[in-house]
């Protein structure tokens, strides 16, 4: 088979009309074949969202699909010390009030991820260092917050996954409790208690079932 290097050397001769018939046939065959690029198999060890997407979302991006695995819109910042995290979902729906966030993280996490629909408010923080430390000590894998956090420097050093819209130094109110373990819709995806989320620097996947490569 003619190599890409040889193909590059032959191109001027072909363009100038000086190539022999056999050379032309070789050039045409190589051009038709094109370069071969092998797709590497999924890396099961790292459990990355890209590998999961390759396996569980095989449809082309321009093909409408409402499969069991959805991808959140890329609106979150990575603010925790753990970039890759996953787990079964618990949810909180609140607005500028975080009592239920604290209450959730006071419970044993068992590797779960708390998904918080904070209404997208950037006027206060729904998570600070004290509650984040509690979450880590109680075995939570992470949190995805449709709102802001504070004490971000300390939280960035904790082995806890945290995605949020950004940071804000003002703490939230405590008057409106909110709702726990209800369906929430954030970043274009509806998440229900018991769903599974997979998050890393590339984004967030949501699935009705646990994903295994």
From TrEMBL:
Source organism superkingdom: Eukaryota
Record key words, sorted: Lyase, Metal-binding, Signal
Cofactor entry: a divalent metal cation
Signal peptide: 1-16
Protein name: 4-hydroxy-4-methyl-2-oxoglutarate aldolase
Assembly: Homotrimer.
Protein purpose: Catalyzes the aldol cleavage of 4-hydroxy-4-methyl-2-oxoglutarate (HMG) into 2 molecules of pyruvate. Also contains a secondary oxaloacetate (OAA) decarboxylase activity due to the common pyruvate enolate transition state formed following C-C bond cleavage in the retro-aldol and decarboxylation reactions.
E.C. no: 4.1.1.112, 4.1.3.17
Family note: Belongs to the class II aldolase/RraA-like family.
Claim: Heme is one of the keywords in the record: no
Organism of origin: Tetradesmus obliquus (Green alga)
Annotated catalysed reactions: oxaloacetate + H(+) = pyruvate + CO2; 4-hydroxy-4-methyl-2-oxoglutarate = 2 pyruvate
Enzyme class name: lyase
Organism classification: Eukaryota, Viridiplantae, Chlorophyta, core chlorophytes, Chlorophyceae
NCBIfam families: NOT-MenG, PRK09372.1
SUPFAM superfamilies: RraA-like
């Amino acid at each position: 088979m003619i190599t890409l290097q040889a193909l590059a050397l032959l191109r001027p001769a072909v363009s100038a009309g000086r190539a022999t018939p056999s050379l032309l046939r070789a050039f045409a065959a190589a051009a038709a074949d094109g370069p071969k690029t092998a797709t590497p198999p999924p890396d099961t060890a790292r459990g990355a969202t890209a590998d999961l997407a390759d396996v569980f979302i095989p449809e082309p991006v321009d093909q409408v699909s409402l499969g069991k695995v959805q991808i959140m819109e890329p609106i979150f910042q990575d603010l925790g010390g753990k970039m890759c995290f996953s787990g079964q979902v618990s949810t909180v729906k609140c607005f500028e009030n975080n009592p239920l966030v604290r209450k959730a993280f006071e419970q044993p996490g068992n590797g779960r991820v708390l998904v918080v629909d904070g209404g997208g408010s950037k006027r206060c923080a729904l998570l600070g260092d004290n509650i984040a430390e509690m979450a880590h000590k109680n075995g939570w894998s992470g949190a995805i917050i449709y709102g802001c956090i504070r004490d971000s420097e300390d939280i960035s050093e904790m082995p806890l996954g945290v995605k949020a819209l950004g940071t804000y130094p003002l703490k939230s109110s405590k008057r409106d409790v909110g709702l726990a373990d209800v369906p929430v819709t954030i970043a274009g995806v509806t998440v229900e208690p018991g769903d599974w989320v997979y998050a890393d620097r590339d984004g967030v996947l949501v699935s009705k079932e646990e994903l295994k490569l």
